[in-house]
């Protein structure tokens, strides 16, 4: 960040790419692996291997129970360990990490967490009693607090270990193979102790939301340099015509614990299916949080994501949405808030390969600290056969302090010739005219600023489909802004 | 004088006083010529002087429908202002006196500075006052912050109110109303008490309750925006309400609603300053004084007449 901090207060990169880019050099992990076969004949070791990554891979492997795992999970591990060993730790020279400094993780003592079942049972973590939920403690699935009674028949929620053969078979069809992943994807794939599964059978509409709660209990402090890593992983499979809403919540045990959450969520939506995904990240302000969300959408399916990320010292969300058929609908609304020395990063990628896809993306972020930073790389790829795609993207950033930084890179890559695509980026302070409107009604400037800053994010928060999630996010964001304001004034 | 034209136009109606006697604007007589006046302004002032000199003395005897016992509410003297960014002078010496309980109208061509005057009065940051004085309720208005002006009892309805996505209409109203109550040393109202307070006001502007749950002005039609401004006026109350083109973009029914609402809010104490292009509004809200803002001189002339 040293370069940026010496440049003027606003450091912005907007580089929309409207013409097809030359294909990036193929990654080593592009290799397709369909069965265990490859494990028996390991590929030749890549010419480079990053000692840091090797060490991390070793410690992850050691932390896992040696007992045999269900096939899909084993397949995932094998696939991941291969790619992991051929991928170096990202540096600022790598385009995807150009503005995202991961040295916070690299300079720490990373320790994989291992919890026994007894320990998990002994923890008193209150889940939501009203809705069915899966609870993860440091990446380990705690099964005793499920609330399944309200779910329709055929819906499965729980560990892959206990899933029926049919579900196991369906899930294993999709698992493991993902050519767009990065190092963090592979770390999760190798280190995930379990796989949470949400399965919605064909035509089944789940009325109530399913909660995924991720707690980080283990945590070091800044002096010890200890950084416990957890790798929770969930797979959501919605069969044809099914519908479900999921709410992901990430929280730390206490305010200043250092830990690294490295979760992955995979979603596969069958034809005509629908997934409403709410994602709230309020980790400790010293934590690293690197999340992957991958979505595969069959024809006429709908995926809606609403995200509010406020926690973490380093927080990154990688979203990848891939079309598997025509006429998909994708709506992504995200709000990132940096109130301390935080980096909030969204890397999203929407890939259209089939006709008449529709997408709307809104990304908003507020940076309210001189050392705060927000990063947005929003890629929309409209490939040759994706005619009549309608893709819209808008990013708006609010910089409230001098030196607060935002790097936005909206980029469209369009190959099809009959499409409607738009993108926009705006970076600003609050609007004078709006502030004046408050003042003209007798409201003082400070109150007006607070209300306007909050309202900036409220546009995204208001899109949470569930009132309880909305209210909780609202009060959390309000509180954070309140403290940010009190400390700055 | 162009200023006289609308007056004669109105003379066919029922105003009872001669235009000349109406120039109840007392300012020209009271105001000393300041040395930095430019030639043009001096000219205009002279012309005003000429036209109103005769009424200086009869004024005291109150022959123009203006009750001299009324307390002055707003007194604008020789006001000049520029656009902050371009430094272009846009208000070139305006004089205006509004007493308690009076309804005034300002008419004039586009660009003559009518809306600018109202924005300057409420302290819009786009404009800078370069000379003159504005006394509101005995205090120097120009020294106050915009929010202090509002709390002092000055209200302006915006010609095109800005949209504020993400801020709920009722939250906004409550925030503004509670700011007023704080000023008065009264306890603030909670959401439920406030709802009880605001509910009857909604009927006044003929709006449904879902109006309150929408974001401030976001996606409002022209009529809804105007009604919302009047709703704010009804909620907050004001000693002087400046209604900036409250009639533009409204159909007859909406205009009647808005006008009725304004009339419903009026008491013998509070005053209104309307800015409009159309006579139609004046048929609904009857002004006692009509001022013409002149493009060439940018001087407020006045043809006051008691439209009773």
Structure in words:
The complex is a heterodimer of chains A (489) and B (308). By secondary structure, chain A is an alpha/beta fold. Helix content of chain A is 23%, strand content 33%. Chain A is built from 11 helices and 22 strands. In chain A, strands 1, 4, 5, 7, 8, 10, 11, 13, 15, 17, 19 and 21 form a 12-stranded mixed beta sheet that branches. A 10-stranded mixed beta sheet of chain A has the order 3-2-6-9-12-14-16-18-20-22. In chain A, a hairpin with a 2-residue loop joins β2 (133-137) and β3. In chain A, α4 packs across α8 (183-191) and α9 packs across α10. Chain B starts with a helix and ends with a strand. Chain B is of the alpha/beta class and 308 residues long. In chain B, 37% of the residues lie in helices and 23% in strands. The radius of gyration of chain B is 20 Å and the shape is globular. Chain B has a single domain (10-303), classed as P-loop containing nucleotide triphosphate hydrolases (Rossmann fold), CATH 3.40.50. In chain B, α10 (222-236) runs parallel beside α11. Chain B contains 12 helices and 12 strands. In chain B, β4 (127-136) and β5 (139-140) form a beta hairpin. Residues 1-65 and 304-308 of chain B have low confidence and may be disordered. The longest helix of chain B is centred in the middle third of the chain and has 15 residues, at 169-183. Chain A binds chain B through residues 431-434, 436-445, 447, 451-452, 454-459, 462, and chain B through 122-125, 145-147, 150-151, 156, 158, 161-162, 164-167, 171-172, 175-176, 179-180, 183, 215-216, 232, 236.
């Amino acid at each position: 960040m040293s370069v940026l901090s010496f440049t003027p207060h606003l450091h912005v990169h907007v580089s929309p790419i409207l013409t097809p880019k030359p294909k990036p050099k193929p990654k080593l992990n592009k290799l397709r692996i369909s069965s265990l076969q490859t494990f028996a004949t390991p590929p030749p070791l890549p010419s480079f291997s990053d000692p840091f990554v090797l060490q991390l891979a070793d410690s992850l492997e050691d932390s896992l129970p040696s007992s045999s795992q269900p096939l899909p999970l084993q397949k995932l591990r094998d696939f991941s360990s291969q790619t992991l060993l051929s991928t170096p730790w990202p540096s600022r020279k790598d385009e995807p990490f150009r503005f995202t400094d991961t040295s916070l993780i690299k300079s720490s003592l990373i320790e994989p967490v291992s919890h026994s079942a007894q320990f998990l049972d002994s923890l008193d973590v209150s889940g939501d009693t009203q809705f069915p939920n899966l609870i993860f403690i440091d990446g380990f699935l705690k099964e005793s607090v499920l609330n399944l009674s309200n779910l329709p028949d055929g819906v499965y929620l729980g560990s892959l270990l206990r899933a029926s053969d049919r579900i196991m078979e369906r899930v294993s069809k999709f698992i493991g193979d993902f050519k767009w992943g990065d190092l963090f994807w592979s770390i999760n794939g190798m280190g995930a102790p379990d796989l949470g599964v949400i399965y919605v059978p064909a035509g089944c509409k789940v009325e109530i939301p399913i909660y995924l709660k991720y707690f980080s209990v283990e945590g070091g402090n800044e002096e010890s340099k200890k950084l416990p890593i957890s790798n929770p992983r969930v797979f959501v499979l919605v069969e044809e015509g099914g519908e479900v809403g999921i709410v992901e919540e990430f929280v730390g045990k206490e305010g200043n614990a250092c830990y690294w959450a490295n979760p992955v969520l995979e979603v596969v939506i069958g034809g005509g299916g629908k997934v409403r995904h709410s994602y709230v990240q309020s980790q400790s302000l010293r934590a690293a949080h690197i999340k992957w969300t991958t979505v595969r959408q069959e024809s006429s399916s709908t995926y809606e994501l609403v995200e509010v990320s406020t926690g973490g010292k380093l927080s990154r969300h990688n979203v990848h949405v891939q079309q598997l058929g025509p006429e998909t609908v994708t709506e992504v609304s995200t709000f990132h808030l940096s109130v301390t020395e935080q980096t909030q990063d969204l890397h999203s990628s929407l890939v259209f390969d089939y006709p008449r896809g529709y997408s709307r993306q809104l990304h908003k972020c507020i940076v309210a600290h001189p050392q705060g930073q927000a990063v947005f790389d929003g890629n929309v790829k409209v490939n040759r056969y994706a005619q009549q795609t309608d893709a819209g993207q808008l990013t708006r950033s609010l910089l409230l302090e001098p030196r607060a930084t935002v790097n936005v890179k909206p980029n469209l890559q369009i190959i099809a010739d009959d499409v409607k695509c738009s993108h926009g980026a705006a970076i600003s302070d609050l609007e004078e005219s709006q502030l004046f409107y408050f003042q003209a009604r007798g409201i003082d400037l400070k109150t007006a600023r607070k209300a306007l800053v909050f309202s900036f994010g409220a546009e995204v928060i208001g899109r949470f489909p569930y009132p309880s999630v909305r209210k909780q996010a609202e009060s959390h964001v309000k509180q954070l802004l309140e403290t940010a304001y009190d400390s700055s004034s | 004088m162009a200023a006289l034209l609308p007056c004669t136009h109105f003379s066919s109606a029922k105003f009872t006083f001669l235009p000349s006697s109406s120039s109840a604007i007392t300012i020209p007589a009271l105001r000393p010529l300041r040395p930095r006046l430019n030639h043009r302004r001096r000219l205009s002032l002279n012309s005003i002087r000429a036209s109103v000199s005769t009424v200086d003395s009869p004024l005291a005897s109150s022959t123009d429908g203006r009750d001299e016992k009324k307390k002055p509410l707003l007194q604008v003297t020789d006001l000049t202002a520029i656009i902050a960014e371009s430094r272009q002078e846009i208000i070139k010496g305006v004089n205006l006196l509004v007493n308690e309980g009076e309804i005034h109208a300002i008419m004039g061509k586009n660009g003559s500075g009518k809306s600018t005057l109202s924005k300057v009065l409420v302290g819009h940051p786009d404009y800078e006052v370069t000379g003159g004085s504005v006394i509101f309720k005995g205090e120097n208005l120009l020294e106050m912050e915009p929010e202090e002006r509002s709390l002092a009892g000055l209200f302006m309805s915006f010609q095109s109110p800005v949209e504020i996505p993400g801020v709920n209409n009722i939250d906004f109203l409550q925030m503004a109303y509670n700011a007023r109550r704080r000023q008065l040393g009264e306890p603030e109202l909670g959401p439920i008490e406030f709802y009880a307070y605001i509910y009857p006001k909604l009927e006044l502007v003929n709006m449904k309750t879902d109006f309150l749950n929408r974001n401030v002005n976001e996606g409002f039609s022209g009529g809804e925006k105007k009604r919302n401004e009047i709703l704010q006026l009804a909620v907050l109350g004001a000693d002087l309400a400046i209604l900036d083109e409250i009639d533009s973009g409204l159909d007859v029914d909406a205009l009647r609603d808005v006008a009725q609402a304004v009339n419903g809010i009026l008491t013998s104490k509070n005053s209104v300053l309307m800015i409009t292009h159309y006579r139609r509004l004046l048929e609904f809200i009857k002004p006692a004084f009509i001022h013409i803002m002149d493009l060439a001189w940018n001087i407020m002339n006045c043809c006051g007449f008691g439209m009773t």
